[in-house]
Amino acid sequence: QVQLVESGGGLVPAGGSLRLSCTVSGLIFSAYTVGWYRQAAGKQREFVAWLSSGGSPRYVDSVEGRFAISRDNRKNTLYLQMSSLKPEDTAVYYCWVERSVPTFGPGTQVTVSS
């Protein structure tokens, strides 16, 4: 059974930083493209960043240069380092694994105060 567990969310002032983590079990983590999505209140879930098995990152324009995605295949863990946070980054952040069936974690709340 595939399981994704996010951690690291919280409340941070604008301009601050947070690092999200996601531990994945039940599959060969290193073989998969993984990433992060987010969903703000009243809005649709949106792509934030992904990282291929080969290590190529991709970001949505709104976080380019502020967020950095990384992975540790030895620990089956995905990270999202978020810097220069803005109130519009407030959302529930979901870890994601690219599979035939969309696979997300339960999410972790990030709140950026103005």
Task: Summarize the helix and strand pattern as letters.
Answer: EEEEEEEEEEE
Oligomer: single chain
Number of helices, where a helix is a run of at least 4 consecutive DSSP H or I residues: 0
Radius of gyration, in Å, reads: 13 Å
What is the structural class?
mainly beta
* Beginning-to-end CA distance, first to last residue: 40 Å
As a percent range, the share of helical residues equals under 10%
Low-confidence stretches: none
Overall pLDDT level: 97
Mind summarizing the main beta sheet?
Answer: 7 strands, mixed
Strand element count: 11
Strand content: over 45%
The shape is: globular
Question: Can you tell me about this structure?
Answer:
By secondary structure, the chain is an all-beta fold. It is 0% helix and 52% strand. It has no helices and eleven strands. The chain has strands spanning 3-7, 10-13, 18-25, 34-39, 46-51, 57-59, 67-72, 77-82, 91-97, 103-104, 108-113. Strands 2, 4, 5, 6, 9, 10 and 11 form a seven-stranded mixed β-sheet that branches. A four-stranded antiparallel β-sheet has the order 1-3-8-7, with no helix packed on it. Strand 7 (67-72) and strand 8 (77-82) form a beta hairpin. The radius of gyration is 13 Å and the shape is globular. The chain starts with a strand and ends with a strand. The model has no long low-confidence stretch (mean pLDDT 97).
